[in-house]
Amino acid sequence: MTVHFRSPAEIVAAYDSGLPGWQFDPATMDALMAEGKAVLFAEAAPHLAGVGKGKLALLWRSREVYDPGAFGQESQTRGSCVSHGSRNARDTTRAVEIHIKGEAEEYYRRGATEPTYAARGHNGEGMDPAVAARFEADCGFLFRQKYPFADLSRLNEGMANPRWLTDEVRAACRAHNVGRWVAPTTADQVKDLLYSGYALHSGQNFGVAARSDVNGVAVPSGRWSHDMATVGYDDTREVYPVGVFLVVNSWGRWNERPRVWPEDRYGPWPEGSFWVAEDVYARHFVGSRSIFAYCDINGVPQKTLPDYGNLSNLLG
């Protein structure tokens, strides 16, 4: 039976109760790597090693320029977190590239989640991120718009089953191919990728409380089998006592804003997001082995990030 969540509270309760949104098979991941559809950071981007240490990157702010409020919108309506995490990583990386170029029209629209979730290989709930990565490398993705075969202008996850994923849908996806993904194996490599303009998503058995600690950092709580995107970090220790990574959820406003969040530094809080301490992130997010960065594989160039302190110039 297809689940249908009607509120953030229902989603939280389902994951707290063990909904298997993230499903990991080591053999599937190994095959993905062997076929070159995902590549280790050490192989694809050794030239980036160390560029992000001690710095910060606020990639989510680029997406906010072109899709304001996107992170608090389109809550998942079933066990589709992998498709949301992948879409949020893709859209953030795309937005950074467009932000750098100053070519707003290239963002076009928000990405859709339905094709990726339909590719999970079964009609139940949950998905292996390696399966999602394979589909997006072999086929690609679609946008929030109307197509001859479906209206994807609004979230409609009820249609996302293998039977819907016809040759016509796959052909349309191939117009927006992902290529390959880069897989980091350390938290420092995640910093290097983020500082170079690349967002990530990952699956893990890890949950947090709805309220941060007094320092503004998430408090581990529970074990969600869940996929989420990572869209920024702060390794400067100027605000938080430890290095932190910003993780965005796909549940809408399910939690409180971090108790420490200086807007003059970070801008408005992306709804549903939270800071994860570096040691916790390394153990649960990177350590799951189910983590992917959306990159320009040909050379994986280091990008010069926008000046997030002067967004008013870009926003008019």
Describe the protein.
There is one protein chain. Strands 1, 2, 5, 6, 7, 8, 9 and 10 form an eight-stranded mixed beta sheet that branches. A two-stranded antiparallel sheet has the order 3-4. The radius of gyration is 18 Å and the shape is globular. It is 31% helix and 13% strand. α4 crosses α5 (81-101). It is built from twelve helices and ten strands. A hairpin with a 2-residue loop joins β3 and β4 (150-151). It is of the alpha+beta class and 316 residues long.
List the helices and strands and how they pair.
Elements: H1 8-16, H2 26-34, E1 38-40, H3 41-44, E2 56-57, H4 60-66, H5 81-101, H6 114-118, H7 129-138, E3 146-147, E4 150-151, H8 167-173, E5 181-183, H9 187-195, E6 200-205, E7 225-234, E8 244-248, H10 263-266, E9 274-277, H11 278-286, E10 291-294, H12 311-315
